[in-house]
# Entry
Amino acid sequence: MEKGEKKRKWIAELVCLLMTGFVFMLTACGETELPSEKKVKVYYVSGDETGVEIHEYERPTGSSEDQIRILLAYLSATPENLRYKAPLAMGFTLRGMEYRDGGVTLDVDEGYKALSATAEVLTRAAIVKTITQADNVTRVMITVEGNALYDSAGDQVGWMTADQFIRNDGSEINSYEKVRVKLYFANESGDKLIAAYREKFYSTNISLERFVVEEILAGPSGRIAGLYPTVHSDTKILSVMSKDGICYVNLDSNFLTAVNNVTSEVAIYSIVNSLSELPHIHHVQILVNGALPPSFTISSFEKNTKLVTTLEQNAEEASRESSQEGQDEKSEKKETGK
# Structure
């Protein structure tokens, strides 16, 4: 009974806020131009579900929670231009909101799962980039019927920040395309590479080469056992560009910090081999803070297949090594006994 009353109270509050948000919208759409500091950007999904569009409205005031509720009202109200879609009016229902320590958790119903993969990514982007404009709000999490949200690749989404949906040059996300790339990660001993395919939507505002490097830095998804990160998690991408079949990757100095027991050769070729899977990339040059590291004996790299193994081959090799170690240990004990 208490849970039902709480839900009815939430719905009543949302209806009230929708009306309030509509009044704010009318004010924003009026003839008087508001100064920039009194505006807020509200993100809508384009009608063809290929990107997000920005509409400016009057910035809400009051406590952080009050501002969040008004922004939710904006995101729920159908825009005047019907070519755009309100992110919270796309076939699912917002069940509740919780604000705590700079984080906003939005719980939606099962209807959210009916969104296409592209629409779901864009809806998340629109919600996060709008809500994080409220005072003291830095991150947003979406749950479905109280359960964790997973993306199309099966990875848990978790907390999201606005900068996840912005390019390094500051421009907003535009559209997403589905891509299947072949990435190389380390085996457990860190001396070999194992390939894995990753299918994911990526923003076409960034190059496919940069997307590949970002995915290598992000590490294996965890859904396939036996794959390990090759590059230190603190490594930052300074730039990625391609010309005449050569991809130039500029990373910060954290790239030179080894992760676990991964060899420098494996770290380098995890990037080189992954980029070389793209049909237009034949060589890769890796720079650190814009310069060639002194430890590099060559200036550019080609794909190295000698370092590549498979999960099956790696398991067989590990089994043989374990068996050999056992035999050596027995021989040593026998000799000691003598």
User: Anything to note?
Assistant: Residues 176-318 form one domain. The helical segments are 2-28, 64-76, 117-131, 208-218, 264-276, 311-337.
